[in-house]
Design a protein that fits this description.
It contains 13 helices and no strands. By secondary structure, the chain is an all-alpha fold.
Length: about 325
Amino acid sequence: MHSADLAERSRLADGKKTRMGMIYAVLAAPALGLAFGLLSSIVTAEPFNLEEPTGAFALVAVLQVPFGVLAIAVFLAVSGTWRDAVRVLGHRVSWWNLFVAVGGFVGDLCFAAAAGLIGGALAGAIGGLAGVVGAVIGAALYRERILRPTTLVGLAALAIGIWLAVSGGSLNAPTQGIYFVVGLLIIVVAVLTWGFESFAISAGTDLMPAEGFLWWRAFLELLIANALLFLLFPTGRHVAYLAWSDPRLVAIGAVIGFGWAIWMIMGFYIGISYAGAVRGGVLTNTLAFFFIAFFSLTVYGAPFSLIVIVGSIATVIGALLIVTEPKSYIARQRN
């Protein structure tokens, strides 16, 4: 068989893998929308409103992450990939898991805190920019060319979308004034952190199996979050006790954690592992956070705002235009 034929087969296989990763990323997005939309709807309710941002911290540490880790453990056991998690332990690249876990924890905490200040709809609309941040970092380090005429159109759509979302979201936000501004700054921190995490996952899955990488990222976040909560935030212990004493809140925590885990497995790890930080990262982040905004305004009863919906759609379109590469597969460019 000629080398040209082998190269063509390899190109087609890489393209198929990329498309599969994109499909995973798209299918995973509604799961996070349902989970974090629900999180946004209860972060301002008792007992999580007893003290801010301790209540948001407790919600992430004692409900979202524990149930998410449980779901990931079940996935590893059923799929038989738990061996990958064991093999990663002690490897020279295992420190990368800690780096990603810290970044993921900061992003999750910032989103919960921001949702309590500016509302889940606006936090979701802005949070989708994490995919673009990760794409830019990944493209720069992997030398993927994403600067094209459509990039300028995408940036314009992003600017318009964020302006519309902030304008509409400020009208019905839970807080106003300086607290609203603080909430915007917090969600920007989450966007930057998640963007770096998206790139780090792409790099990490080049070094280790995605499933094993996923386990240690989630499990280390569980340890870090609860250690900080119970050691540094005394009120958090009381909030955690009240949350686990209410069967309804436990059930809500399970829904949030399982939805977060589904998104992590399908979109944030398998999607990025197959499609890369550019295609996979943008799809799984931008679409997931669009669904957070959409479900917050519809299913979970936040004051409806057509402007926020339109702004979120413009943000999605802008993000997709920035990373669209019609000439060839991203996988071929990376190789």
